[in-house]
Amino acid sequence: MKLTQYGDYFYLYLLFVTFIPAILLGLSGINTKYYGIIASIGMTLLIMGNTLGLKLFLMFLVLEIILIYMYLFIRKKTDNKYVYWLFLFSSMLPVISTKVAGVTQYASYVGFIGLSYLNFKVIQMIIEIYDGRITEIKFMSFIYFIMFFPTLSSGPIDRWKRFEDNLNTKIEKDVYINEYLISGLKKIFIAIGYKFILAYLIDTYWLLKIPDNVTIFNSINYMYAYTLYLFFDFAGYSLFAVGTSYIFGIKTPENFNKPFLSKDMKEFWTRWHISLSRWFGDYIFSRFVLNSMRNKRFKNRFIASHVAQIITMFIMGLWHGLTAYYIIYGLYQGSALVLTDIYQRKSKYYKKHKKENWFQIMQRIITFHIVCFGMLVFSGYLFK
User: Fold this and answer.
1) Residue 1 has what pLDDT?
2) Using CA atoms, how far apart are residues 268 and 364, in angstroms rounded to an integer?
């Protein structure tokens, strides 16, 4: 048996069944950790089924556990950067292998559901062990962090320290009811509306009705339809994951925050796929800028920041896949961020009108269309 996570009503039925013990434990003030581990194992087996993907997942889990604990031990002995780079590269091998295999005939023999999101968790832990932020890892908590089923296939990408702190916090009955149970159920019901109603209607009665032949009109039509479908589908997945996490006593970070109200592309990336953009911002963008300034690689911080934005979004494009339209999408987003920064710093017109309502409305409209064109590139529709 194999299920699609948050993809059909039978899965939702099983999901609500798993809620019952978690809710009873939460109402009793008992930590749901051990039940959550059992539920995560069971749901992972159902989602992956008796497939090669399950075997690859188990292999990934064992190897990454060994890698994490080996580096945790070694880091206490030395902070040698070459040892760090070796372990960091080793931790990246699963996602690198999957992306390379994705453009070959061997794609189905390498990856499994949710590999990228799980791998980001491990990579983040290697980085923070090197930084000295992680000095101890409790085995069962670590297993739960990696296998936590609500975020298995589609994120959001959580951080170890945040997850561990949340896991070890005692939640009183009233707090669980008001801040976890009710809030979690609200998110799940919104997710049902997003994914099973709005995304379904857009896909069925708009997106699938657009002809395959690429014309200007069809492309514009597809651009709007795909952007809205992607948002409601992906935001629906994320809300399901976050809401389910809340039921299990874990406040997984939000992944979307009204992204189409953004006034510029910098703001957009603080509202869209938030966990991914923050991950790339913290572990690629910020570190590149700091390292560049420390080594005086560029004349000033602005140039360092612009190069970092291009590199960060280029890597994000590669992360989605080693195909032309993903790479172009990454470069497009990086260029949009750079041009936004230049415009806001140097334009007298912007500085004069940026606080006026009419100008902010125009900014939102323009930003929405910059986003939509990026999604059209991302969809691959123009590359048929």
Assistant:
1) 60
2) 10
